Amino acid sequence: MELQTLLLFSATVIPLVCTPGPDLLFISAQGLSGGAIAAWKANLGIIMGYMTHAILAALGLSAIVAASPAIFHTIKWVGVAYVAYLAVCMLLSAIRTREICIKTASTKSIIGKAFLTSFLNPKGLLVYFAILPNFIQLNESVAIQSLILSATFIFSCIVIYGVIGALFASMHNKQTYNDKKRRITEGVAGGMLTFAAIGLATS
């Protein structure tokens, strides 16, 4: 695959990666409420979701989803419901006053939620069966080209989401932890996830 093709593909998907969506907002929320480690755990889960999409695309299974509007819309609304559920949980926690107990979510919990957030995000599926096929050359191995392009997309996500997660994590580290801060950060994080759910529902 030519370098020019990879550069053109990157120029196409990077603006999409930078567009606020459930994955980016989930990482931002984790960085704001849990710091840099939580943000990177969320980033890992998001990338795992997109890696799963990449494997499915290479196997041609994403084309099956694309050919069935019913399957695609089912995935979309399951994603909407899941992100909305996370938002409600965060907002309910924000309005409750409680004694401070510094407790970070488990690695498994953060990665699992992040994985579902990206795997159920229609934006990821659109990249693989709407944008990626336009850069495939039929005279070469389709599976190998698909994996190379997917790796380019995933690398872009790692870098951009990593930077954004670090920015929000820096806000978390600037203040002494207290219940007022917890409620504010969880309220903001819940608002972010609410915006993501609305964006998914109206897309």
UniProtKB/TrEMBL annotation:
Record GO cellular component, one term: plasma membrane
Protein origin, superkingdom: Bacteria
Signal peptide bounds: none
UniProt keyword Ribonucleoprotein present: no
Protein's cellular compartments: Cell membrane
GO MF assignments: amino acid transmembrane transporter activity
Family matches, as InterPro entries: LeuE-type
Protein name: LysE family translocator
